[in-house]
Design a protein that fits this description.
oxidoreductase activity, about 15% strand, oxidoreductase, NAD-binding protein, globular, 7 strands, 8 helices, seven-stranded parallel beta sheet, alpha/beta
């Protein structure tokens, strides 16, 4: 019997996707690991890894990647849409990557999965898709759209016998903030908030505000175990601040946003807000 196959986006070294690759490999999968550049995945060296250069913002690139997988295997058993971007100053690219990147994958993979009436689609969202925080409007919006689209997809895929899983991570240690280094423009209305803005970007990598970032490998192990179970959950949230965010959703919205703003506007501790 051939090994099961998973296709994962956003697998650059140090990212969540790379850890997910190792998690699926440990469970006996053949993993098609993708990133914009193959050289960005140098740490993935296992014999069961197949590296592909795929840009989720490019329809042709996505189509070519999926075509290669189906030419070499019986089909994708698990699709994981993990590629993400969070640069505050590049709103269009954030939405194009985080939301439309997933849409492209779905358009190319779901019809092929449907032919076999077999497959699991995993969307890596964010707790910020449930409850927004200041200074990350486009990122919040992209993840909220992703969550809504995933919920819709789950209903529409019921007659196709496909499973749809939405994962909403909290603070997970990764390189996403480092890749999104940002300097507030000199003429910005929020120049005086530069430290706070950068802290919001980097707080997933710190222990400030009571946030304990979850180890990337621990996160991947839990997610993979849930995804490949006979009855994977429709929704899974874990990581630093995920419990607090869940509680905030039960408060009146005005009160919840007031608490979030009070935390976000505090002067952060030195060393907790990335490079200045």
């Amino acid at each position: 019997m051939s090994k099961p196959v998973t296709f994962i986006t956003g697998c650059s070294d140090g990212d969540i996707g790379a850890a997910l690759c190792n998690g699926f490999i440990a469970k006996g999968f053949i993993v098609y690991a993708t990133a914009c550049s193959v050289t960005a995945m140098s740490d993935l060296t296992h014999k069961n890894v197949r590296k592909l250069a795929v840009d989720v913002t490019d329809d042709v690139s996505v189509a070519n990647g999926i075509t290669q997988v189906y030419a070499e295997t019986e089909g994708t058993d698990v699709l994981v849409s993990n590629a993400g971007y969070s640069h505050i100053g590049e709103g269009a690219k954030v939405i194009e990557t985080n939301f439309f990147g997933f849409v492209r994958l779905v358009q190319h993979v779901v019809p092929l999965m449907a032919k076999r009436q077999h497959g699991t689609v995993v969307a890596i969202g964010s707790i910020l898709g449930e409850m927004a925080t200041p200074f990350q409007g486009f990122y919040n919006a992209s993840k909220a759209a992703l969550h809504s689209y995933t919920d819709t997809l789950r209903m529409e895929c019921r007659p196709l016998k496909l499973k749809i899983v939405l994962v909403a991570p909290g603070s997970i240690k990764s390189n996403i903030s480092v890749k999104s280094a940002y300097t507030v423009p000199a003429d910005s209305l929020y120049k005086s908030f530069e430290k706070q803005i950068k802290h919001v970007m980097f707080q997933s990598q710190t222990k400030d505000f009571g946030v304990m970032s979850m180890d990337t490998n621990e996160f991947a192990t839990i997610v993979v175990g849930k995804v490949i179970s006979p009855k994977p959950p429709q929704y899974l949230t874990l990581g630093g601040f995920s419990t607090k965010m869940w509680i905030l959703q039960w408060l009146p919205r005005t009160a919840a946003q007031g608490l979030i703003w009070s935390m976000a506007q505090k002067e952060p501790k030195p060393g907790t807000y990335g490079p200045m």
